[in-house]
Amino acid sequence: MAKAPEAPKFIGSPIKRRDDPRLIQGRARYVDDFQLPGTLHLAFVRSPYGHASIRKIDASRARGAPGVAAVYTAADLAGKVGPVPVAGLVPDAKVPVQPVLAERRALFAGEPVAAVVADTRYRARDTADLIEVDYQALDAVVDMEKALAPGAPKVHEAFPDNVAFRWGISGGDAAAGLKAADLVVKQKMVNARVAPLALEPRGVLAHYLPGEDKMTIWSSTQVPHKLRTLLAQQIGMAENRIRVIAPEVGGGFGSKLNVYREEALAAHLSRALGRPVKWIESRSENFLATIHGRGQVGEVEMGLKRDGTVTALRYSVLADCGAYYQLLTVAIFTLTGLMLPGPYKIPNIEMQVTGVFTNKMATDAYRGAGRPEATYILERMMDLAAAELGMDPAEIRRKNFPAKSEFPFKTSAGLLYDSGDYASALDKALQKADYAGMRRRQEAARKEGKCLGVGLSTYVEICGMGPSAAMGGQGWESARVRVEPTGKVTVFSGASPHGQGQETSFAQIAAEGLGVAVEDVEVIHGDTDVVPYGVGTFGSRGTVVGGSAVVYARDKVRSKMARFAAMKFEADPGDIAFVGGKVFVRSAPEKSAPFAEVAKLAYDAIKLPPGTEPGLEETHFFEPGNFTFPFGAHVVLAEVDPETGEVRILRYVAVDDVGNMINPLLVHGQIHGGIAQGVGQALEEEMIYGEGGQPLNASLMHYALPKANRLPRFELDHTVTTTDVNPLGAKGVGEAGTIGSTPAVVNAVLDALAPFGVRHVDMPLRPERIWRAAAGKRA
Amino acid sequence: MEISLTINGEPRHFDVEPRTLLVHLLRDEAGLTGTHIACETSVCGACTVLLGGRAVKSCTLLAVQAEDSEVTTIEGLARGGRLHPLQEQFWEKHGLQCGYCTPGMILAAHELLERNPEPTEEEIRHGIEGNICRCTGYQHIVDAIQAAAAAMAKK
Questions:
Q1: Residue A722, pLDDT score
Q2: How many CB atoms lie within 10 A of CB A448?
Q3: Minimal-distance CA residue of chain A relative to B133
């Protein structure tokens, strides 16, 4: 009797990406790479002021200019294009109506005031320059505390106190917990506003077909279906006559999880003019008119017992919304509250947040989206508390971890953490870092007058977004798996990757379940005419939610194929195996047929198993029962020069637990990239505004972000704690690196400055800030 | 204004406005969209191409400055259907995620390795300082360039 062949394992394999050949040859197609005959190029006139009254717009020189098809102001769009859509609100939030073009006032520098369409991109820009706008500059609101002071200028006449929303979350009794503490540590902390800066700026190409009354929209988006549904409503066109395509997308990091003014206007104009309309964002526009991240200024109080047990945490914070909300502006801030306990058993927590309108672009989701802020304040407080109690920073953290046996663990914020083993991750990180050795190195350096610091961060984060009820709707993801008559496999996913590599990882998932080669699986995503309705890629959900949908759809197809094979072999469907491109009877492996032959049976349908339809195409919508909670420990060794303020990261050790890893190569890439952005926020990145609301560093010449020579080599390791939330046992990894890294770096720098008596310095830790802190504290 | 230049080994002729940037000539006129635009201040390096074999930022050159010159874009790097070792190693080492910085990064690395065939890690990181990547954190890019250097040394 023949022996059953061994099933190869693709899941868990560091397979190189199938996405890459087109990318490394420059043959991938991003939005701007699509060229349609007759395209009109869209350009904007944008307010240079943070706050201004628009007295007059004179477009007379522009309207007659060569190659110009049309010029628009708000008046031309009234009743034709609705306001920018908003979701994720909290009760009693004040909701300003965001028009596609500014009406009587511009409320942030970069707000579009007029639009031009012309036959070339150069002419569109030339023509925009011919439009004269008579502004009257008004006092702007830039600083949140000043915004809330009596007599402050009003961002919106309708909301005179500049309060956008108030929200709170609490568990237990934080006031009582602080009162009962032996020690209360207080600190004001800032999470500055930063720019996501995906390398491909935004762009949209809208192509209306007059004869068919249909439109195709290519957009550099993370959420093609959401965009389609919301744009349809915004421009007044039936959703099922719109096709949205997310082509190759050059990064998103949350900034393209949105619906923007320019997308709506391009779509509307294509329909109005009957020609394709293309808008490609410049980098300046990207700084001004693409959402920003973070933007929290708050006071943190932590209560502890003498032995380091945390009794309470209270966070009172101002949240910088900008002048208008984009899609999830308000919701992002609430994620901070949900993760306030972090990886610790803190019985009493409280967060009170006041959302503030400012004369700036909206904030919204940016890698981590609310969770880096929670981890940052927690991890800074742990170090401050450790210093006051004379405890080792690793030990104070360890003391407050729940044990592995306590999971699923209900937190005081009301979440149920799926699984966790925080102590093991910390142990592994300390061992890999040679923590004791780092401290010895630090001691020795101090004797030589050098400043070395060791920084820790232990974190847990909430991702795999998420149960639909908890998300305000639409937390599921879809997949359709089709086995073709020739035996090839096609996976259609509602996810919308933009660099994460799901064309490879989803192929691994499908191939393993069906016993075919990874090369025989094609993964298609991003086209609303082709894939099932999907939610999109953000919140570290692509593999966890999208990949799980693939698992279930794949298994449905497999089960159906097994019935056809069982019919052919006169066996039991439960006894059918799929390995190495063959389908056979497990208990009688000589009864075997090629995978394609069984597929053909289902399509020919000459004979059907009872109760079975022809075809091999199954869809699944996966609704996760919970979020997932990856965690880890980062250890940073940094050298600080107090004379110049320069920081050099000497070692960066990260132990992250993302559950089962579908493709470790991709996991490492996500962690590296995530850490880089976290280091950027810690040391360099911040949007800086003048008093009039003008961004002072809205270009890559002035906004510092990490370059290759400013980042260390990352030393990664993992623990693997699986989860029952999904069939992959995966927890998601897209944002974990960013969340864990920022406080580890800041803690390291402040540890280096400890001999100067420096207690806290706000991010970004630019050289000037470090120098001032060290100099200020010197005798 | 009429200009003639060689792009990826082929002689090409164009009639463009004098102010046309080289990157726009390559993308919009020559249809070679592998070269990308990611800023207007010549900082990001996504537009890097080879001009006379030297890496240049094509967003900061006028097309007319490339008159009578040889330009190599990412599309011209593979020869006879065979990927360049840099392309192969970026693939092997997962040196790209969204791919937007990749063409410019590969061409910048090409010049780096021509000038310095056995660079240290520090020299590589310094050598690609003019190319921003927001996805990878650079480590796998450095690995890819090191591996390409080794592969090219063997030849």
A1: 96
A2: 7
A3: A199
